[in-house]
Amino acid sequence: MTNLIEITENKHNVIIDIRYASSNNFTGAPVYKRAACYLNNEAEIALKKAIKIAADKNLKIKIFDAFRPLEIQKALWNHTPDPNFLSNPETGSCPHCRGVAVDLTLLDKNGNELDMGTEFDTFSPLSHHGNNEVPPDAQKTRELLKKIMTEAGWDFYKNEWWHYQLFDCRKYPLFTDKDAGTGMV
User: Fold this and answer.
1) Which residues are catalytic?
2) DSSP helix/strand/coil, 107
3) What CATH number is given to the structural domain containing 101?
4) I need a labelling partner for 3 at 20 to 30 A (CA). Which of 75, 99, 138, 170 fits?
5) What are the phi and psi torsion angles at 179 (to 5°)?
6) Does residue 179 carry a pLDDT above 70?
7) In sequence order, what are the residues at sequence separation of 6 or more whose Cβ sits closer than 8 angstroms to the Cβ of residue 138?
């Protein structure tokens, strides 16, 4: 087993909605055998910081994805080989496969998702940070999410408002499901 830590709703005070364990994702079918959320220990520490910063603003974090086994990255890439929104698993660049990336959004005090202008995993330029074609309120909530996450030590990916990763992510090892012992595949 790796040093991956399971992120849970009770332990971390987040909402978990692992989209790749359902058909509510860009493939239209479940790709994980079970819904589970893992991060490496450094990413968990940064996530806890983000959770605290969000809570101080009366907000909560909702997680769509975190650790993604290498086999799943290959399946996603084979389904939609779009380097603007997915890492090619052959290049070894996927921070999700290292347990150092998280896909998320913000919830208000009533548990409603804040408007980000697009849904999670909308593979379109509308999902890019700084896109002025989304409504002004959505631009503000994207900036708020980015401020929370960067203050907590995360780097952002310019093409996806929902994706954050640790800096220098290639220094962390890639994991298959078997390596990680997560039973997601």
Assistant:
1) 160
2) strand
3) 3.30.1380.10
4) 75
5) -60, -45
6) yes
7) 115, 116, 117
